[in-house]
Amino acid sequence: MVERTSVILLTELHLIVCFNVKMSSSAIYILDVKGKVLISRNYRGDVDMGVIDKFMPLLMEKEEEGMLGPLLQTSECTFAYIKTNNLYIVSTTKKNANIALVFVFLYKIVEVMTEYFKELEEESIRDNFVVIYELLDELIDFGYPQTTDSKILQEYITQEGHKLEMQPRIPMAVTNAVSWRSEGIKYRKNEVFLDVIESVNLLANSNGNVLRSEIVGAIKMRVYLSGMPELRLGLNDKVLFESTGRGKSKSVELEDVKFHQCVRLSRFENDRTISFIPPDGEFELMSYRLNTHVKPLIWIESVIERHAHSRVEYMIKAKSQFKRRSTANNVEIIIPVPADADSPKFKTTIGSVKYTPEQNAITWSIKSFPGGKEYLMRAHFGLPSVECEEVDGKPPIQVKFEIPYFTTSGIQVRYLKIIEKSGYQALPWVRYITQNGDYQLRTN
């Protein structure tokens, strides 16, 4: 049980301190591509700051040996590093640290600074070094992560580089147990918008056999609530249904679940209740994956006829294989064509067709595609080249779509309770959307 909880901890940093996990960094450095120190901060004083001079030679040595990894060790310390935009973000540590959490923190530094400066690169480092030093002082204290939420940090560390003491007061969220939400938030109209968004990744061959498929889902929220509300979300979770004797009810077995830091993980582990005090505004509550067989929601049949290398004809049939009460919006069917094709002519029963020679493809756009329908499109091209195209290596047809009020997995929001001590009434709005991910259909 402890091991499983620690894996979930990797998703959010604020829990590191709460669970007393060992994660300590002696110092943080930001280096340019040649290994020159742009910014550094010593937190513990137990490692000589000059040890960073050994980082780049050691990196190059390991690279030449073909043994380059994210960790480099010397007799003085261990270097953990990541690379972004030709910058190295390096942590040094002397202790037996939880190295996975060190890397999560390094990526969190990049995320926060990108929120501040849009692009984290050498120029933005040099232009904003005062703010960066303030951020490094707030992000970590004596080697341990502290406030890592950029929304909270932006309340009292501004890009004008104001010193902390110049601010009227530090937000309560910094010293509060709920570090991701400020106190005193007020709205005239209290509302919660919850979107269940599923992306379908699929690869099928020309015979209709699905070679690979999965569903990647996320629950995204926009919260406009006063005070410090507690929300409780109930899903048709298979583990919950089986434990409560409702195994025969329609449920979904979620895999690779990752939560926002606001979710009480212990509560979820005990009774599968998703309980949390939400951040203000927009955030992603959770993500999940289902490695399952998915029937193609939109199936494409293609017949391609070449005529003596002078012209080529396409007959494309599109069929929606979902329930009639649902409708796919903004459907785009992208069909690859030969690089030397010209003089396009199209005929379709619905929508419009456009030739994009820079992509060597035609795009069939259908604004509204109801379930259980079938449409036809014909295309004709001239082929000035006399060379025969290779049969192997044909690019697949790609399909883009969005189906509102529909989920492929069958996940359902059973309830969304909003509890706040003042007792106000709040309106929850729930929306379901299924869209394409990497959705490809091979041709003959």
Automatic annotation (TrEMBL):
Membrane topology annotation: Peripheral membrane protein
Subcellular localization(s) per the UniProt record: Cytoplasmic vesicle, Clathrin-coated vesicle membrane; Golgi apparatus
Any GO BP annotation: intracellular protein transport
Statement: the UniProt record of this protein carries the keyword Transport: yes
Keyword Nucleus: no
Gene Ontology CC terms, in alphabetical order: clathrin adaptor complex; clathrin-coated vesicle membrane; Golgi apparatus; organelle subcompartment
PANTHER family: AP COMPLEX SUBUNIT MU
Swiss-Prot/TrEMBL keywords: Cytoplasmic vesicle, Golgi apparatus, Membrane, Phosphoprotein, Protein transport, Signal, Transport
Protein name (record): MHD domain-containing protein
